Amino acid sequence: MGTSMRSDRRVVITGLGPLCPIGQDVKTTWDALVEGRQGFGPITRFDPEGYDVRFAAEVKDWDPGRWLDKKETRRIDLYAQFAIAASTICVEDGGLDVERIDPTRFGTIIGSGIGGMMTLEAQHTILMERGPSRVSPFFIPMMIANLASGHVSIRFHAQGPNFSPVSACASGAHAIGEAFRAIQHGDADLMLCGGAEAAITPMGVAGFTAMKALSTRNDDPARSSRPFDKDRDGFVMAEGAGVVLIEELEHAKKRGARIYAEMTGYGRTADAYHVTAPVPDGSGAARAMTAAMKDGGVAPEEVDHINAHGTSTPLNDVQESRGVRLAFGPHADRVLVNSIKGTTGHLLGAAAGVEFIATALTILHGVIPPTINYETPDPECDLNYVVNQAREVPVRTALSNSLGFGGHNASLMLRRFES
Prior knowledge:
- By secondary structure, the protein is α/β, with parallel strands linked by helices.
- The chain contains 13 helices and 15 strands.
- The strands form 3 sheets. Strands 5-4-6-7-1-8-15-14-9-10-12 form an 11-stranded mixed beta sheet, sandwiched between helices.
- β9 (305-307), α11 and β10 form a beta-alpha-beta unit.
């Protein structure tokens, strides 16, 4: 396996696997994004009576039996079930016959911000109520955050690079970026990559509520997530997975794969500032965007679109907007910016996977999905946002941003595929 940079190895996107509150296939998810149909509603995963936040964005009509047998369902945490399902959707979408590829050249990198929180809470209850001898032998492999990637690797016999970034809401972006690097460096020809999360649990909701991260609009969930709007009051917790198949160009062409777009750049930086708050001037995010553009050989004025992290929290949206101004200079007024979190909610470690899928489809179709619920402009969020209605516009080059607690910043560069 090669270890030196092989910049001549082009990386293309050949399969998409969304599994999220607005869809469990490419078409349904894309239609909902373009139409601005949100996926929020009352929490059903547990009884939220007495909670300050009683709504979330859950995966609708989830049936694990479509993807797993009964024994697997009992022994695999929900976040990893989502990863397996999204990866299966992705492999089918990519027309990939895993029997006909070299398994040692096929890898999986799937991140999670939190991992098996549902299992952790359930097994802690058993420990407290019934004692240590009753804790499940499957507790550890169900809980740890690397097992989504592990299960997907086993499922598809992928023996190449396999690990799991844990970088909060940037986990999925780091997974895709590192998978991109693995192909560029010659360590793999195909990678399944992205993120998975299932943290709509009693502790998960209580914890994010306690730190004032969540919207509290219990009486109006549909209008609760409003990225860049002056009256935003927090994000909506979501769950699911977003997995993509990326592939070395010649390998993709040889098997006759459909190509959605090309991935050309990856930037990652740290704010080195605070455990949850982004650096006030947006410089950490700006350096990640600049690094991705440099890696992709693109000048700021060549970028048509940014799929922003855009969480709908007071701090993120201002700091990210400032970061775009720092990275793009005068072009910041022209680049078209959106956030799909008004529609999907915030999938935490899985957000970047779904947003990368949205960005690839934006390039393919020449349509930018809207940032919904935008009513009152915020003078501190002063970019060219695509709001409330999708915009048909040719998009040749786009960035997808992810910014995580701990000051983790990642930016992914995509462009229209041209042979």
